[in-house]
Design a protein that fits this description.
Elements (H helix, E strand, L loop, with lengths): L8 H21 L6 H28 L2 H10 L1 H15 L4 H16 L4 H13 L2 H19 L6 H8 L3 H9 L3 E3 L3 E3 L2 E2 L9 E4 L1 H15 L1
Antiparallel strand pairs: 1-4, 2-3
Helix pairs in contact: 1-2, 2-4, 2-5, 3-4, 4-5, 4-6, 5-6, 5-10, 7-8, 7-9
């Protein structure tokens, strides 16, 4: 396949986004009682998502040789899934730093096969972790660290912080694998006490800390 036959990254994502948008609009058009004004709103949402997807793909293309890697992605189902999942996560991400982070994670995986699995884990988690979850994770890391400085006989500092978070947020943190669940050693001979109302969360694990650390690196650079 010659270079002139290889579509750009932006062309790829625009085609995918337009196809998705056409499907949504087609569904909307067939619903009785749904007026043209609703179609305008839906089209605006589609355009916004497409813009985010283009930004994400441009971010990936800025970090890799897009033409060189096009064939690699085309023939590798794992990379196809990673790129598509990254696009979907970026399209639903309201936060620009999160979209930049997604692009970096996917680009790193495209240039290093050893990073594909960990990139998929991060992308999968970020598809669900939005602003409220990220904010909660930052607060829980601070509480976890403070608790570990002086755990006393229990992990009251962390458990209090967890109690302040909505149940839906705590459930999402457990689902995405960014927290420790179950009793953990907090000092010599002492273990944390899981609480059902806090989904048995007893800390933030290395995966969750990595995501927050790398997101914060983007915010400060």
């Amino acid at each position: 396949m010659g270079d002139e036959e290889v579509p750009s990254w932006q062309q790829i994502v625009v085609r995918a986004a337009v196809a998705s948008g056409a499907e949504v609009l087609g569904w909307q058009a067939g619903v009785p009682g749904v007026g043209a004004g609703t179609g305008v709103v839906v089209q605006g949402l589609i355009d916004s998502r497409r813009g985010r997807a283009e930004e994400f793909v441009d971010g990936v293309a800025d970090l890799v040789d897009a033409h060189r890697l096009f064939e690699q992605v085309r023939v590798d189902p794992g990379l196809q899934n990673l790129l598509w999942d990254g696009i979907q996560a970026a399209m639903s991400a309201a936060d620009q730093d999160k979209r930049i982070y997604l692009a970096r994670v996917v680009a790193n995986a495209l240039t290093d096969d050893a990073k594909i699995d960990e990139a998929q884990f991060i992308v999968t988690a970020l598809r669900e972790l939005e602003g409220p979850h990220i904010g909660a994770l930052v607060r829980l890391i601070a509480a976890d660290d403070e608790n570990r400085k002086d755990p006393g006989n229990d992990d009251e500092i962390l458990q209090k912080a967890l109690s302040d978070e909505p149940p839906a947020v705590k459930a999402a943190l457990v689902r995405t694998g960014v927290v420790l669940v179950g009793s953990q050693p907090v000092s010599s001979g002492l273990y944390s006490i899981p609480r059902a109302e806090n989904y048995s969360i007893t800390g933030v694990n290395d995966f969750g800390r990595r995501i927050i650390r790398e997101l914060q690196d983007i915010e400060t650079n």
